[in-house]
Every structure is written in C-alpha cells, then in structure tokens.
Specification:
The protein has 348 residues and is of the alpha+beta class. The protein contains 14 helices and eleven strands.
C-alpha cells in the first residue's frame, strides 16, 4: 500500500488531501514519524524520522496522531481481497504481503493481469492505492513493488531479470542496510553485479555469513516459497518517554507494566514463552537489550520478576533512560508443555 497510514488519514479527512501529512507523535514529546504522505516526502520527511526534524524540513507539516483501529480495518479489507485470489498470502505488515499467483482463483494466466485487477479492486473498495511488483521470485517482486510508487506496477518477466539486476545498487540486496552498504562500497562493491565478481574471501570478510546469500540474490536466485500465516516469533511493546527516566523504581514499574501486557498477549494466544527480553535506550541514544531464558511460562509473577531483574544488567538508574521495551520469545503452546499444571492448562 502507498503511504498507508497517511493515505487512510487523507481518505477519511478530506481537508488533509494534498497536504504534507505525518502520522506520529508531537515534536515536543519526542514523537517519531510513523508514516508520511507523498506531499511530506517531497520535503525529505520519512518514517522513523524524529518529528522535530520532520517539522524542521517541512514547517507546514500537518501532524496526525495514529489511529490503529482504522488502519487495521483498512488492512483487513485489503487482505480479504488478496485471499479471494489465492490462499498463498504471506503478510509482511499491515500494508504489505507476498502473493503466489502461479495458480489463482481468478483463473488468470498472467501475474500482470492479477496485479492490475487487485489494484483496481483495492482502489474501488477502499479508496486507497497500492503498488505491485510482479516477478519470478520474492526478492525481485519486493524491489519491483517499490519501483514506481505511488500507484505503481512494475513487471519483471524472466527475460528481463538480468537487465533489471544490472541497474541495481548494492543497497537493493536483502540484508544490506546503510552500514553494510558503506562497508561494501569501501571494498569497491558498489552495484549488485559487483557482488558476483567480488573475491569470496573479501565478501565474507565484509559481510560474514551473509556472503553466500547475497551472491545468490545478486544472481537473481531466490527459492523461498510464499508461506501463509507465518509463525509469530515474538510479541512485546516499547515506549519513548517525554522526559528521561532517572528514578530506578519508576523504571522498574514501567518494565513491570510492559511485562503484564506481554503476559496478557500470551494468555490470549494460549502460549508460553521461554525467553523474556528488555530493551533500554539511554539519553545519548545508545540502545541495549538483555534477555533471560528459562522453562516455558506465562506466570505473571515469574515473567515480570525476570524482566525487572534484567535491569540489573543495565545502567538504568545510573544513566537517564529515553526508551524502555519488553518482549517475549521462543513460544510453545500450553497443551504441549507438561510443566504447566493441569488445572491451568484447562482454565482458559
């Protein structure tokens, strides 16, 4: 979907149409841009940017607080359309998914035809626009989907794969962010095709275990299937505070509250977690995580105590804290774990 949160806001509030809009928190409360309209992007505003910087770049920016219930409703409508085409829908987020349409319920023989129909249906039923990429594999389809935003459609047929690869920078490779791209460019690896000719040892010395994967992608090879209903790996929450936290008791209370939210999620999903992780970002933006693993549990006293104890492995209380987070990982179902008392297993 195109600038999804911002587009939903512009759809629902006509006065916002054509305006530079950012969805997120207020600049005086350390707000961050969750989404920016294309009018705002023209000024350099983008997601994950601090709202202070966004307003500096675009003084006329209209800031809208997020309303995730409306975004979720719009997402559900879009995904319902996806699943009319194929059961092979792999969500990446509320507004993005892979679809395998090799065989599809619409009986279309060309992926391009499916994409055109999907875009038209989405626009007609949600008044929102989507951009689509059609290609032989996930890697290429992902790149193609962002090629002509907004409202774009880019098709990479098998015979066009090599010419398409030839024009891509090394940043296009999966797993290559700004830091890794800088390291690769320092070694003379500037374009995707340079990865193919790079010395294997040089590549491994630069990107470690990613080397073989990146070389495979550089050759346009990606055999990963579209996997519907991907298993959830973690759940949690985090909060950036308007003023730095310095009192350790306050920090402990915040961690305990976030742990309670995670435990409520485990109960709803009828899951147990082996691992609890806390995230701490200090006032200088240094960010650390600390984890502890034990027997599977969703006992509130146990998991909360473990999360709070992890603070002892940080400088919280000695250094000002800007952000805190708690998450749970390594799940198993209550029915599969013999350590959970029989009564609790059947109490949900």
């Amino acid at each position: 979907m195109d600038a999804f949160y911002a587009s939903v806001e512009q759809r629902d509030t006509p006065s916002l149409r054509g305006q530079p809009v950012a969805v997120g928190g207020q600049p005086d409360k350390r707000g961050v841009v969750a989404a920016a309209s294309y009018e705002a992007r023209a000024f350099g505003v983008h997601s994950a940017m601090s709202m202070v910087k966004a307003v500096r770049l675009c003084p006329s920016l209209v800031i809208v607080p997020p309303d995730f219930s409306r975004y979720k409703a719009a997402s559900n409508a879009v995904f319902s359309i996806f699943r009319e085409v194929t059961p092979l829908v792999e969500p990446l987020s509320l507004d993005e998914a892979y679809l395998d349409v090799t065989e599809n319920l619409w009986g279309e023989t060309l992926g391009t035809a499916v994409a055109k129909r999907l875009k038209a249906r989405i626009r007609a039923e949600t008044q929102l626009t989507a951009s689509a990429g059609v290609a032989p594999n996930k890697f290429l389809a992902k790149i193609a989907s962002g090629w002509k935003k907004p409202d774009g459609l880019t098709v990479i047929s098998p015979e066009r794969v090599e010419p398409f690869l030839q024009q891509l920078p090394v940043d296009a490779l999966w797993g290559v962010g700004p830091v890794t791209a800088k390291k690769l460019r320092a070694r003379g690896i500037d374009r995707l095709v340079d990865v193919r000719s790079a010395d294997v040892e040089t590549l491994r010395d630069t990107v470690g275990s990613l080397a073989d994967w990146l070389r495979q992608l550089a050759n346009g090879v990606d055999d990963r299937p579209v996997v519907p209903n991907r298993e959830v790996k973690s759940s949690g929450s985090e909060n950036t505070y308007p003023a730095d936290l310095t009192d350790l008791d306050t920090i402990r209370a915040e961690i305990a509250e976030m742990a309670a939210h995670a435990i409520s999620w485990l109960a709803r999903k009828e899951l147990l977690a082996r691992t609890v992780t806390i995230k701490v970002r200090y006032s200088d933006f240094t960010t650390i995580t600390r984890s502890h693993s034990a027997a599977p549990s969703r006992d509130e006293t146990d998991l909360t105590a473990r999360a709070v104890r992890l603070l002892e492995k940080t400088d919280a209380g000695r250094r000002p804290v800007r952000l805190l987070g708690v998450s749970v990982h390594n799940f198993c179902s209550a029915a599969d774990d013999d350590r959970l008392p029989f009564g609790e297993r059947n109490a949900e």
